[in-house]
Amino acid sequence: MTNIEINELSTDVITRIAEDLRVSYYNKVGGTLTIEWGVKQEVNACAISNSNLDNPPNHKITINYELFRALYRDMEDYCNYIEYDADNKLFAELYRKDMQPKDLLTNNYSREAYQNNIFLAAITWVFFHELGHLKQEHGYIRGKFTESKITLINECNLDNKEPLKGKQSAVSHITEIAADFEAINFCNFELIKHFKGKDLLPAIFLFTTGVALATYRFYDKEISMECDIPVGTHPNPIVRLEIMLPQIWEFFSLSGIEEALEIKLTREELVHTCNTAVSSVGILWIKRRELSLSKNSLSNLVQGMFQRTKLKTYMKTLIETWDEIIPNIKLIRSKREIITNKFGLLYFTDESRSFYGANMNCE
Hints:
By secondary structure, the protein is an alpha+beta fold. About 60% of the residues lie in helices and about 5% in strands. The protein is built from 14 helices and four strands. Strands 1-3-2-4 form a four-stranded mixed sheet.
């Protein structure tokens, strides 16, 4: 696909999603949602709110064409990598026989179809991530902890200033995770609109692959799993993915949902499907950075947050920061929701809070 064709496909898909949102939400509350296509040669998307919190939402999302092109080329590289069988011996060791990346990728859809679905999953998730920032007014939330009144949220580091530290960094990290959570909620419902029955599990594989490609694309540093405190604006992709994945498999294994899905998916097959998708993307990312596939580098693949004992202090900080800001976010939502609900709101169970030594839920 040419760059022009990538741009046309991407803008058509995002425009249709945005128009559905205007009809279903923004028009009903007297708000506006503007979409802008950026021409800067930066792999970036951003969200800005011009809202007074007592008035209807006035939101804008900008996505650079360069991001669309980068994600499409990433998708092509991933598909070529899996199709070529370069690491099939490694995959045989890492994944179950019935959960091999090549089989999950190629056995259910044509090449054009699975490439298209991975790419659309990636750009749709990016869009909903930006919408998550806006729906929860994260610019306003972040501004409460800085002297700046700027409400623009960028997905990539655009300058060489000193990285955020302390409370500012903690708020930035947890609001990124909160936007991820909101985005996955939107995407789960999009998936069940378009896929049912035997098509659903392979579609979840393609979707999760797209999310992983987008998450890694925004990260340009070495991954360290030993950080005690938040630094910078964004968590590393492993942290983000290990928090997002349970949200996917828990949704699709809800009791009673099989009637709507026209299939019953077990928690086990959902976990293995999602893990195969994101860890195979992670292996490609390791190889792209010309790192060896050593035991040390492979330890940075998704394992589950409860396996990350070195992140306990980091996660405790994020959870307790979330507890500080969640009342403001709930207040904003209560003013603007047509029907007030908790869907899309980041939530930590008492089990996870206990593991990280954080405060228990008050509700």
